[in-house]
Amino acid sequence: MKNIIITILTIFVLSSCKDDNQYFHYNKLEYYHIDIDEDKVFSLEEKKGKKNAKLLELLRQDTPDTLSEISILNGIEKIGYKKKEILSQKFESINKIFCKKIGLGINEEMSCIAIYRDILVFKNNNKIVGVAKLCFDCQQFIITGTNKNIENFGESGDFNELHSILNP
Length: 168
Prior knowledge:
Layout: H1 2-14, E1 28-33, H2 38-44, H3 50-60, E2 82-86, H4 91-97, E3 118-124, E4 127-135, E5 140-144, H5 158-166
Antiparallel strand pairs: 1-2, 1-3, 3-4, 4-5
């Protein structure tokens, strides 16, 4: 029992986010969200058209893989996503979530299909330096633009905390 407590305390101390462990160095954060239910998402698969194809790609596919593919984000407000700029006062709390952590490796694989209704775009001097596509229902994510290990993202209530920061 003593060894378990020591291990947990060690992990807690080591997992604190230092500036060099942050996924992104940014000075602007844009948050995009779309209210769309699961049935409508699945019905998009049967519809044709560029707008529906782009919306379906954003909602369902694990893109972008690299920052060179961020053109997918162009015009997302035209297809239904709403944009909100996150105040810089919230950056410190967000940085504690988006940083390299040493965790227990207990992220559970969810059996649901991810629908990425939430997208964070991290910018530094108006240049996109990172993108995070999030499914709060399944707690799945796509994080692009960092060279840090993102393996333990989502542990320790990260999704609940992030949701409460973005949607007070």
